[in-house]
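Researcher: Next entry in the queue.
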Amino acid sequence: TAKRELKLSKGLLKLVIFATDEWFAPARNLLKREPPQFVASAFTEFGKWMDGWETRRKRIPGHDWCIIQLGVPGLIHGFDVDTSFFTGNHSPYVSIQAACLEELPSFTPGDDRTGMAATEAQLAAVAKLSSEAWPELVSVSELQPGYSDCCHNYFRASFKRRVTHLRLNMYPDGGIARLRVFGIGQRDWSSVSTNQHVDLIAMTNGGVCLGYSDAHFGHPRNMIGIAEGLTLVLQADRRGILQVPGWEWAVFRLGHPGLIRSIEVDTNHFKGNFPDSCRIEACLLTPEEEVQCVQTRWNSGKWEVLLPAQKLRPHHRHHYTDAELTLNRPVSHVRLVIAPDGGVSRLRLWGQLTSVIQMANKLLKQS
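Model: Structure for this entry, 367 residues:
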């Protein structure tokens, strides 16, 4: 799928910046990457320990809600509101609102807020956001309880604007185990100079994995994520590159078409299972051509070599400069080919943005 989960771990800047109440369990649990768990014997001084966000029962008018900052701003296509293990205490109804914010008031939510509620100062600060008036991506909808056969509550979204923050509303209170947000990263390109070198394939800049040959040990989209990633008898050529009959590949759409100036292929942590070699191909496609390529599993004749075959090393960052690249024109899609197999931690393509006029002229020349 082209949709990438925009929810990332707390260490990658996604966090809950405000919650009305966190009596039984803090809202930050919504962002955990690992699946929810249930420990029957676990209790805190405030009640039963739950792996999620759970508020106390409402005894005043209103409902509970929290505001979440996305790790990757972008276009949202859907949600999974997971109520795992919240069976008699799940939130009966939910709604989700969104906004694109440039600046935020000062918040000091703290790390562990179990047993706490928002202070008057925090309520005053969050009121400046007028979040109750944010556009609604999911209208008030019923949630199913947290039994294994119905705990995943999926909702589609058709919001066409960039989102940086969400407001998750529970009606009136209760518990939610996890929130997953699915979509595609989108950068504000208006602030980027055409002379600036940008990682055009990065997920944060809108890069998307559109196809691959194999993903048994990990999805190729992991290569364009944020931060560092966590035998046969073969013959080699004069450059030391193994001559093998097969290879694996992954295709990516860049976040913005551009001219690639440098490349990083990172095999960090792949020590006994790194690829022997890699090459990178590229092309410039219209949206219609992309659809055709997806349908034909990318058996397109438009691919041109951007980076010729390169010998790779284990647990190493491989940097390739302009002098080693063989394509000096704008591209919109790239294909990473590894031989014969193995793992790549991260792929970075640094380049300069291409204007719409430059793209149109290039496509006209191709046709």
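Model: Helices lie at 120-127, 287-295, 356-366.
Researcher: Noted, moving on.
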